[in-house]
Amino acid sequence: MNEPNAAPAQAAGDLRDFLQLLEREGELRRVSTEIDWRYEMGAVSRVICERAGPAPWFQNVKGYPDQSVAAVLFGPGHAAPLARIALTLGLDKRTPTLDVIEELRRRFQQPRKPSLAPAESAPCKEIILRGDDINLLNFPVPWIKEIDGGRYIGSWDIVVTRDPDTNWVNWGIYRCQLKDERSFAVLLLPQGQHGGAILRKYEQRGESMPIALVIGADPACHLAASAPLDHGMSEREVAGGIRGRGIELVKCETVDLEVPASAEIVIEGEVIPGERVDEGPFGEYTGHATGQGRAPLVRVKCITHRRKPIFTMANMGKLHDDSACCVTVMSAAVARNRLEAHGLPVRAIYYYIPEIPVISLAARPGLKKQIVATLLGGERMITSGIVFVDEDVDPSNLEDVWWAITTRMHPESYEVVRGVPMNALHPWLRPEDRARRETSMWIMDATIPHDWPPEYRSRHAAPADYLHSWSEGTRAMVARRWKDYGYGDI
Ligand SMILES: Cc1cc2nc3c(=O)[nH]c(=O)nc-3n(C[C@H](O)[C@H](O)[C@H](O)COP(=O)(O)O)c2cc1C
Ligand SMILES: [Mn+2]
Predict the structure, then answer these.
(1) Dist CA 453 CA 459 (whole Å)
(2) At what angle do helices 367-376 and 322-341 cross, to 10 degrees?
């Protein structure tokens, strides 16, 4: 694994392998000076995130000897924005953004079933704590931002639940706020997210919901858990697809669930029907601290962990963060596979921020509305809006996209679609939207109409950049003579 030229490319193994790989590639740095879990770890990792520095691995957390915290593991990367996601896939860290998405798309189409490991050989069972030994405060849980509502035990995690009707197992990354030694809140949003839909079923039956919070699993598992897969699809099989071999699972001690065997920490518990506590605010991927309200409470029944466990944390905020790096590429891969399955061709999709796709395509009658309908029919693939650009525009290049919007979009091509599902984390929602739990979205169509004749188009809308404004012959001549002009260094 990870040898140069290994074929086919395989993803990293457990978190510890992954940290070593990142360190070798200059994408991780050990921080040995003492650091406080209250505000300081969050502040330092946020600056690193905003400057796209190597991920920090805090070795010396105040009050927590023998433990460490790895932060903002997924970026933005140092060598390139998606460097650490590319490395997770066994690719070169400078692999272009749209190529990473294409590779993910291929792996999504080859899900692999997990296997079950015996408890004796599962690293996450090295220490098992029950009864009075349960104490969440024994982990270096960070208070990330001073504006957050408290310490967050789950920010880069996997929340495992099981549908009581179908036995479908769901993995999602959901934020979890520490409440006390034996309980935490989990933000299971009531709309769109699968964890929330599963909880509703248990509550309708008046039953407690078993739940497991996983920290520090194989990175492929966390990537899969951040993907907007359809209801009923298995994140754990997609994780196997991303890694190139099935994930090893192990049974929990006190709940009927399985978790990745190599995880650093597993917290088993249950949600009592109807029980809610204060949760938030929390600095989020929208670049705003949002979502203060009431959330389900998890009562902890058992904790298992590796020796000297490595805690992990995300640090979301304006503009780029580790959450956006993952969710945007996973969404692009899921969305394009979904469109292809519906026979809807596009050249490329990119999400500059989660839930707002930019799609480049060759327009044909009706295609754009078919795309909107198909993506709205999936979960979390569009909220807020969607941008369409022509094939000559690179959707992963923000300047290119903005150029298209400002020069090719007829004002009448800005549309508002009313009555779409709402994501409560959006800062722009009005109080009445929140009350109705429904809102609107926009479509920006920055493509040149498909029915303009070529002659009209070339007279009024021919792109005036180097590539399009000179013939191949002239460009070849200029390239040949480039040094003669005295610009050989540029
Ligand atoms: C670091 C990080 C934190 C996230 N926090 C939440 C959260 O608190 N609540 C939520 O509903 N989604 C959150 N998400 C997004 C979900 O993980 C994502 O939408 C995923 O598709 C959810 O799984 P599901 O589709 O099975 O519900 C987060 C994603 C990341 C990467
Ligand atoms: Mn899911």
Answers:
(1) 10
(2) 120
Looking at ligand 1, which atom is closest to the CA of residue 173? 17
What pLDDT is recorded for position 190? 75
Look-up: residue for tokens 């021919």?
Answer: 462
Number of neighbours of residue 104 by Cβ within 10 angstroms: 25
**Mean pLDDT of the residues in the chain:** 95
Burial 356-383 (b: 16+ CB within 10 A, else e): bbbbbbebeeebbeebbebbbebbbbbb
Instruction: Please work out whether the CB of residue 396 comes within 6 Å of at least one atom of ligand 1.
Output: no
Give the per-residue pLDDT at 301. 98
What are the angstrom distances between the C-alpha of 33 and each of 27, 53, 132, 135, 153? 19, 18, 33, 26, 22
Delineate the domains of the chain, giving CATH numbers in brackets: 15-313 (2.30.110.10), 342-451 (3.40.1670.10), 456-485 (no CATH)
Predicted model pTM: 0.94
CA distance 301 to 298: 9
- What is the distance between the alpha carbons of residues 433 and 355, in angstroms, rounded to a whole number? 18
Distance 20 CA to ligand 1 centre (A): 26
282 lines ligand 1 (CB under 6 A): no
Give 251-274 pLDDT, tens digit per residue: 999 999 999 999 999 999 999 999
- Determine the pLDDT at residue 12: 57
Asked if residues 161 and 169 have their Cβ atoms less than 8 Å apart, the reply is: yes
Q: Is 471 exposed, middle or buried (0-12, 13-18, 19+ CB in 10 A)?
A: exposed
For residue 203, report the distance from its CA to the centre of ligand 1, in Å: 21
Is 195's C-beta closer than 6 angstroms to any atom of ligand 1? Answer: yes
